[in-house]
Amino acid sequence: MSALLEVAGLTKRFGGVTAVDNCSFSVEKGTITALIGPNGSGKTTAFNMITGYLKADAGTMRFNGHDVAKPNPAKLYRSGLSRTFQQARIFPELSVRENLVVASGFSWGDLFGMRVSKSDRAAANEMLEEFRLDALADLRAADLSYGQRKLLEFAAVLMSSPKLVLLDEPTAGVNPVMIDTMERHVRARHAEGVTFLIVEHDMQLVMRLCDPVIVLDNGAPIATGKPADVQSNPLVLDAYLGA
Ligand code: ADP
């Protein structure tokens, strides 16, 4: 296996709080890697630095064999690293279909000037079908349920044919049927070669879906390994129990 993403020495301070503290880990190509840890352990801050939404105080990053000196969300998206957010970031006033077309890399001008190519329309239609969103295609994204918005955001990030997808709590607040749907789509894309890094609080889902599992505490990994090994690691139990 080889690392698709490597971070080393990643650090972020907010005033007196060191949210991410000299944090190093890698995501091997072809894995569904989980990033877990108690609330406040630095997962979201790490995600935000890796994806260029937050500037790191220190640290280096390599993605797909290239050093990324200054992570930038748009550039990373184009080079195959995309992410979702805890609160789905979609265009609420656009339709479900338009959200997918925009995500494939078209500018607003292209969309409203109707210069979207046939192949991009076809790609959006395929994604609608794959995600069983076709019946909702012409609804405004704002009119979807919370879970459907998260599903749409997931479908949208796949429009860029990413190599690595970072999912930030994909199942938080969604119903059990939608949890199964999310899991099915992660597995399907993983089978096609997409690598995942997932922040997730549903431990049952992590245990059946992810390998390896990286556990953060106080801004740095305290354990990495197979789900069962991590689950029985005393350091991990202490971190979760606040000991
Ligand atoms: P997690 O995602 O694991 O719950 P976070 O990355 O959100 O953890 O937070 C890590 C620590 O950094 C927490 O102590 C949190 O309060 C702090 N923190 C996160 N973002 C900010 C911010 N924008 N300003 C100040 N403190 C922050």
TrEMBL record:
SUPFAM superfamilies: P-loop containing nucleoside triphosphate hydrolases (SSF52540). SMART domains: AAA (SM00382). Keywords: ATP-binding, Nucleotide-binding, Transport. Residues 5-243 form the ABC transporter domain. It comes from the Bacteria. GO terms for cellular component: plasma membrane. InterPro entries: AAA+_ATPase (IPR003593), ABC_AA/LPS_Transport (IPR051120), ABC_transporter-like_ATP-bd (IPR003439), ABC_transporter-like_CS (IPR017871), BCA_ABC_TP_C (IPR032823), P-loop_NTPase (IPR027417). One of its GO terms (molecular function) is ATP binding. The keyword Transport applies. The keyword Nucleotide-binding applies. This is ABC-type branched-subunit amino acid transport system ATPase component.
